[in-house]
Amino acid sequence: MTQHRRIALLGPGAPAGLLPAMVDLAVRGLPPGYVDGEFVFTRRGVRRPDGTWDAVAEGRSVRYSAIVALGVATLPQERQRAALAGDTAVDLAGRLVERLPGVRGLGDAALICWAAAETGHPRLDEALRHLAGIDRLASPGQVYTVEAAWELAALVAARTTLGASSELDGRLERARARLLGGLASDRLYRHVLGPSSGPLVPWYRAHVGCFADQVYPLQALARLHAAVGDADALAAAEQVAAGICAAQGAEGQWWWHYDARTGAVVEGYPVYSVHQLAMAPMALLDLADAGGTAYLDEIGEGVRWMSERPESGEPLIDEGLSLTWRKAARADPRKLVRGLRAVATRTRPAARLATLDRFYPPVAVDRECRPYELGWLLYAWLFEFPRPS
Fold first, then answer.
1. Mind listing the pLDDT tens digit for each residue in 363-383?
2. What's the domain of life for this entry (predicted)?
3. Beta-bridge mates of residue 42
4. How far is residue 129's CA from residue 131's CA, in Å, rounded to a whole number?
5. Mean pLDDT of 54-59
6. What is the separation, in whole angstroms, between the first and last Cα of the chain?
7. What are the C-alpha distances in Å from 77 to residues 74, 80, 86, 272?
8. Which three-class secondary structure string do you get for the chain?
9. C-alpha–C-alpha distance, residues 22 and 322, integer Å
């Protein structure tokens, strides 16, 4: 099979050599989590009597189903049916659109709208109307940064599918303004947009943004620039990309929590497989395809971490179960380290509390795999960037 364009950008050999196998793993790994036309919340690791691992499906997730629809839509139809137990991405998107009347979250509605746009579902207009209604309720106060970014990405995808209109362009402008406003005085994105104090985040974490809070705005703003030629959006995407790449770990780790004011790392762990294999490449390759900086070395080092990580020799890729284990983390179930470092950096941005690294080393493996992790993996490496007509 011909190597995909995005994978080929990394050049021959490792780490690019790992990626075709990971694409195949994702296609094999999705069906065990596909139950009655939607995806489970997770496949959780359970140790067998012989000491090996199994993965048990638990819960359901509209959000993860929508992300998988986006990822599977990049596959040829026969491979879509392999990944979805006989269904196609448009089948899955259609079921999600049918569930929209019961969806109240901005992020879930945005992802369903995005999936409807990229699969060309005929009820895209209906999805857009539902998203608009939810957005009117969310706009006055705090909004999660990730969800605002998904909304902008969904609207860009809808405009690509449906063409320009005054109503859609007006919504794009409002979503754009909200997202760009989040960088008005900061180096990176905080966890929420809007007032710094409010119900969505405690005071001691108001200055903190996680990796997802950087990646999804970066992606959405890069795509906005590609669609309409928005130089301010491209500049903001470049700012965020430069920030996370400057902070990347020496062994390719994409760290977890940042001080949005300065771009410094507040707490590095956990390091997530989906960040290394999918989310960072997805956003940074979108930036490059939009005419921005190509961070190919950083992408490659992030992928390499999956097979050569220094934290322990315990593998995060399980070929037998066709999944990636979720993250490498500290043995810190109460999340004490991230809480203490958030409090410390609130008033002293350079505070590190280095002794915590000795007491809580990053040697634990979180043995679960959520379907979106495989969905974004497909989307990152197989997506063909849309070009304006």
1. 689 999 999 999 999 999 999
2. Bacteria
3. 58
4. 5
5. 97
6. 30
7. 9, 5, 10, 30
8. CCCCHHHHCCCCCCCHHHHHHHHHHHHHHCHHHEECCEECCEEEEEECCCCCEEEEEECCCHHHHHHHHHHHCCCCHHHHHHHCCCCCHHHHHHHHHHCHHHCCCHHHHHHHHHHHHHCCCCCHHHHHHHHHHHHHHHCCCCEEHHHHHHHHHHHHHHHHHHCCCHHHHHHHHHHHHHHHHCCCCCCCCCCEECCCCECCECHHHCCEEEHHHHHHHHHHHHHHHHHHCCHHHHHHHHHHHHHHHHHCCCCCCCCCEEECCCCCEEECCCEEHHHHHHHHHHHHHHHHHCCCCCCHHHHHHHHHHHHHCCCCCCCCEECCCCEECCEEECCCCCCHHHHHHHHHHHHCCCCCCCHHHHHCCCCEEECEECHHHHHHHHHHHHCCCCCCC
9. 9
The token duo for 86 is 């006989």
Which residues on neighbouring strands pair with residue 84, listed in sequence order?
none
Provide the residue count of the chain.
Answer: 389
Q: What is the pLDDT of residues 74-105, one digit of tens each?
A: 999 999 999 999 999 999 999 999 999 999 99
Q: What does pLDDT average to over the chain?
A: 91
Copy the structure tokens of residue 157: 């995808």
Q: What is the pLDDT of residue 346?
A: 64
